[in-house]
Amino acid sequence: MLSKFLRRKKGGAEEEIRNLVDQAHLEGLVPSDEHEMIHSVFELGDTLVRELMVPRTEMVWIEHDKSLRQGLSLALRSGFSRIPVVGEDLDDIVGIAYVKDLAKRSHDHHEAEQTESVEENMRDATFVPEIKMASSLLREMQRDQIHLAIVVDEYGGTAGLITIEDILEEIVGEIEDEFDDGDEQFEWITSDKARAEANLHIEDLASELKVLIDLAEFEGVDTIGGVMAATLGRVPIAGSTITLRGWRITAERPIGRRRRISSVIIERVEEGESSVEL
């Protein structure tokens, strides 16, 4: 009966199936997790790509002229196996670097690490409009065996990127990371060193460190991670460092499938010392 309804195009088939699933759930025939998943499948049909994508402000990318060695280093530090390659700027995506391609080339021709660029070893990028339906994109990605696509806005600029996992998560729920252990948002390790969650509000950080921070200086951001991104001009990855009001802040470990920075190490620095490292 369910397959019969799925084949129908008109006459409220979706609502009928939803009702059938709800009734089956109430009668104990459909477990709660499967009940939720079926409803998520229907909701996916009304979801636009832009609602699920990683926005451009959170994208990790690499310049086309970086060396193969630099590309491998970024992939290892960020934890991403596929990284967009940019030309003149972020609105000029020229391809996708696959860590397995870079690693194979480096293994087969060790000298290529320094002599060849990322651009020479990248693959073509797939572009999709941000107003495309996620369900339609999922079918295309499965059919064409595409793992990652660049999302563009109505003007052709880069709006973000989306992976097949981003879409699947809308159905099955967020994929948790085994290292997401729920540490305290801020803790002192020594009198001159502390660890903080990247999502700690900048005002709370200022209070802990007993420093003054003008929020207007970091317009549009209010967390440690946001301040790091604004200062660096790109998404921080493990090892990225900035200095703020006499304290060195170093991005520590990434968590989750999207490899967002989870925590930072904060250390007091000597007066006059400064650093901004990607």
Write a concise keyword list for the protein shown above.
disordered N terminus; four-stranded mixed β-sheet; 3 domains; CBS-domain; Uridine Diphospho-n-acetylenolpyruvylglucosamine Reductase, domain 3; alpha+beta; CBS domain; 278 residues
Please characterize this protein's 3D structure.
With 278 residues, this protein is α+β, with helices and mostly antiparallel strands. The chain is built from 11 helices and 15 strands. The protein has a 6-stranded antiparallel beta sheet with strand order 8-9-14-11-10-15, with helices on one face. It has a 4-stranded mixed beta sheet with strand order 1-7-6-5. A 3-stranded mixed beta sheet has the order 2-3-4. The longest helix is centred in the N-terminal third of the chain and has 14 residues. It starts with a helix and ends with a strand.
Euclidean distance between termini CA atoms: 57 Å
Strand content range: 15-25%
CATH class value of the largest domain:
Alpha Beta
Strand order of the largest sheet: 8-9-14-11-10-15
Poorly predicted runs are 1-11, 178-182
Shape: globular
Helix content percent band: 25-40%
Put simply, the count of helices is 11
- Major sheet summary line: 6 strands, antiparallel
**Helix and strand element order:** HHHHEEHEEHHEHEEHEEHHEEEEEE
Our Rg estimate from Cα atoms comes to: 23 Å
Itemize the secondary structure elements and their pairings.
Layout: H1 2-7, H2 13-26, H3 32-44, H4 49-52, E1 54-55, E2 62-63, H5 68-78, E3 82-86, E4 93-98, H6 99-108, H7 112-115, E5 127-129, H8 134-144, E6 148-152, E7 158-163, H9 164-172, E8 186-190, E9 193-197, H10 202-209, H11 224-232, E10 241-244, E11 247-251, E12 254-255, E13 260-261, E14 263-268, E15 276-277
Parallel strand pairs: 2-3, 5-6
Antiparallel strand pairs: 1-7, 3-4, 6-7, 8-9, 9-14, 10-11, 10-15, 11-14, 12-13
Helix pairs in contact: 2-3, 3-9, 5-6
